């Protein structure tokens, strides 16, 4: 595990209220994996870009699986970018790598970050039986990944048992915008009475073992530059 498994997801609302910009970060080496839940247009892909930019500047390996295949279209020639039905290949790659690492256990690994945008959209392409297989592969990766430095970031519109085998294996959950009742009870059950509808880019972070935090995701000032940084990280040719 690696001290660089830490990244910023926004600013703390309570500090902004008194004029202070206090970054809020997640550290996968302490609490692994991140689930991002938000209705369409509430800022999931935007937040993923911010996170990808930071991870791209670390020495880990990034895999981006983008079901919609529109927002990240600039990345289409990158080796580690998988769009639309190819999300299944990305999942298989990560699952094989998990098994490989599990069967040749070492003490340190280069971190592997598996980022999936619109997971539920991807699953809805398939009949139930295949859906179960993919859900199971994701669940195993969540459960076993941390020990071998494989970390998962999943974004979807609604948290629902149909799409996830529980949310317990996600140590971090972010909800943005106006969340549905089901999403609130699945992701923020402990705090469900505190969650109120928010505007785009505003929401909550729940990290296991920490109190609920209100966060504001900043605007990306130079999106083209951010995309260039991500592109470089996803295009690298060297093997694991
Ligand atoms: N925190 C933010 N600050 C400024 N603009 C944002 C923020 N989050 C999202 N946006 C903008 O809002 C639009 C919708 O965001 P997007 O990330 O595509 O939503 P989603 O992926 O949840 O559908 C995009 O044009 C995006 O650039
Ligand atoms: Mg999106």
Write the SSE topology.
Blueprint: E1 6-12, H1 13-16, E2 23-27, E3 34-37, H2 44-56, E4 61-66, E5 81-83, H3 87-103, E6 112-117, H4 119-123, H5 128-145, E7 150-156, E8 172-176, H6 181-187, E9 202-207, E10 213-216, H7 223-235
Parallel strand pairs: 3-7, 3-8, 4-5, 4-6, 6-7
Antiparallel strand pairs: 1-2, 1-10, 8-9, 9-10
Helix pairs in contact: 2-7, 3-5
The structure holds adenosine-5'-diphosphate and magnesium ion.
Strand order in the largest sheet: 2-1-10-9-8-3-7-6-4-5
CATH superfamily: P-loop containing nucleotide triphosphate hydrolases
**What is Rg?**
17 Å
User: In the CATH hierarchy, what is the architecture at level 2?
Assistant: 3-Layer(aba) Sandwich
Number of strands: 10
Q: What oligomeric assembly is this protein in?
A: single chain
Shape: globular
Which class do the helix and strand fractions yield?
alpha/beta
Quickly name the level 1 CATH class: Alpha Beta
Q: Write the CATH fold name.
A: Rossmann fold
Characterize the structure shown.
The protein has a single domain (6-235), classed as P-loop containing nucleotide triphosphate hydrolases (Rossmann fold, 3-Layer(aba) Sandwich), CATH 3.40.50. Helices cover 32% and strands 22% of the residues. It has seven helices and ten strands. The protein has a ten-stranded mixed β-sheet. Strand 9 and strand 10 (213-216) form a beta hairpin. The protein binds adenosine-5'-diphosphate and magnesium ion. Adenosine-5'-diphosphate binds at residues 38, 40-46, 200-201, 217, 219.
């Amino acid at each position: 595990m690696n001290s660089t498994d830490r990244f910023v997801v926004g600013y703390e609302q309570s500090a902004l209220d008194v004029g202070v910009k206090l970054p809020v970060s997640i550290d996968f080496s302490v609490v692994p994996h991140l689930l991002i839940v938000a209705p369409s247009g509430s800022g999931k892909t935007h937040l993923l870009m911010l996170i990808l930019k930071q991870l791209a500047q670390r020495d880990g390996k990034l895999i981006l699986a983008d079901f919609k295949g529109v927002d990240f279209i600039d990345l289409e020639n990158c080796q580690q970018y998988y769009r639309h039905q190819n999300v299944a290949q990305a999942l298989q790659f990560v699952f094989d790598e998990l098994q490989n690492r599990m069967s040749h256990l070492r003490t340190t690994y280069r971190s592997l970050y598996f980022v999936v945008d619109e997971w539920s959209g991807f699953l809805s392409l398939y009949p139930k039986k295949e859906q179960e297989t993919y859900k199971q592969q994701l669940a195993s990766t969540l459960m076993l990944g941390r020990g071998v430095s494989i970390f998962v970031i999943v974004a979807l519109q609604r948290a629902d048992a149909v799409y996830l085998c529980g949310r317990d294996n996600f140590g971090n959950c972010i909800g943005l915008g106006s969340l549905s009742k089901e999403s609130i009870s699945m992701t923020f059950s402990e705090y469900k009475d505190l969650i109120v509808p928010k505007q785009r880019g505003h929401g909550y972070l729940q990290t296991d073992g920490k109190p609920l935090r209100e966060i504001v995701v900043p605007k990306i000032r130079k999106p083209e530059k951010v995309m260039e940084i991500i592109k470089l990280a996803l295009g690298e040719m060297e093997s694991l």
